[in-house]
Specification:
Distance between the termini: 59 Å
CATH topology of the largest domain: D-Maltodextrin-Binding Protein, domain 2
Order of helices and strands: HEHEHEHEEHEHEHEHEEHHH
Structural class: alpha/beta
CATH superfamily of the largest domain: Periplasmic binding protein-like II
Largest sheet: 10 strands, mixed
Number of helices: 11
CATH class of the largest domain: Alpha Beta
Number of domains: 2
Number of strands: 10
Length: about 325
């Protein structure tokens, strides 16, 4: 043992004398969301897979305030990777509010993960049957500046409704569903993976319904907003909602700072899709992460490392 220690001391001395150094692993952070949400467990699983399968790279997941907060952290170079809703990422890159004074031009896409579905929840006894019945009603449109609030405003506008036509209430998912249960609002808009726990809980306590978009107007709307897509919520997803509901969705994106090397990002993307089964085990929504849909709803420029990977897989020609 003593002889081994002597040898080790000699090796260390030689390394120092000749300027030889041991390379430490590259450390990266991924900004996710709240620990009770979807981003954090999926982001943690991604970080675990990257740390396990990409030599010389370690990644840790950070709990954050989700999309808007994450984008601002990336802009400030406080993190290297983030998760964000595609619609919000588009707004950040393009300089739309709340990023109109400080666009996030260093933002690059890695992959679309799973769909975040915009659900317009009403009480069944409210008499509200369509979007047009929301005129003059109290509508919980999401937290101020959130991805939900931005998209809610767009979808309402597609149906001819502005904030001047309704009584907007700027509430989080949990606050909105509580307000709906207490009859403080007439409609709660929730943007999240389906089924959403907050909506499940509400459906157990009150009779709810979900509004479908008007397909006569939504087609032209989607052409103008390519980061959104139609989504069908299957009958029986929520207690008492026994019909199909047609709404819109926007994928959650995995994004990265443009400054990271092509080689590192390529290896990270490859590890994620080579070991997608391990990520899928982390959360029900993670099962929707698939190679064939990895570019669907991508609203920002791809990082060259991700582009190289998808080109090899035939998704880009």
């Amino acid at each position: 043992m003593r002889r081994g220690m002597v040898y080790l001391a000699i090796l260390v001395a030689i390394s120092l004398a000749f300027g030889v150094r041991v390379l430490a692993a590259e450390q990266f952070s991924i900004a996710t969301g709240g620990t009770a949400g979807t981003y954090y467990p999926i982001g943690s699983a991604i970080a675990s897979v990257v740390s396990k399968y990409v030599p010389g790279v370690k990644m840790n997941a950070e709990a954050t305030g989700a999309s808007v907060a994450n984008l601002r952290m990336l802009k400030a170079k406080k993190v290297d990777f983030i998760m964000a809703a595609s619609n919000t990422a588009y707004g950040a890159y393009s300089g739309e509010p709340p990023f109109d004074k400080d666009p996030v031009k260093n933002l690059r896409g890695i992959a679309a993960l799973y769909p975040e579905v915009f659900q317009f929840v009403v009480r069944k006894d409210s008499g509200i049957k369509s979007f047009y019945d929301l005129r003059g009603k109290k509508v919980a449109v999401g937290a101020p500046g959130s991805g939900t609030e931005r998209t809610a405003k767009l979808v309402l506008a597609a149906h001819g409704l502005t904030y001047g036509d309704i009584k907007p209430q700027f509430l989080s998912f949990a606050e909105a569903m509580t307000a709906l249960k207490d009859r403080v609002v007439d409609c709660a808009i929730v943007g999240a993976g389906v089924p959403t726990p907050a909506v499940i809980d509400a459906a157990m306590l009150i009779d709810i319904n979900l509004l479908s978009v008007d397909e006569k107007v939504i087609g032209d709307f989607l052409k103008k907003h390519p980061y959104l897509a139609l989504f069908e919520i299957a009958p029986g997803t929520y207690k008492g909602v026994d019909q199909s509901v047609i709404t819109v969705s926007s994928p959650a994106l995995l994004c990265v700072d443009e400054g990271l090397s092509e080689e590192v990002v390529y290896k990270i993307v490859k590890a994620i899709f080579d070991h997608i089964d391990e990520i899928a085990a982390s959360h029900a929504q993670a099962k929707n992460i698939k190679l064939e849909t990895a570019l669907k709803g991508m609203s920002i420029p791809l990082h060259p490392g991700a582009e190289r990977f998808f080109r090899e897989k035939g998704l880009i020609r």
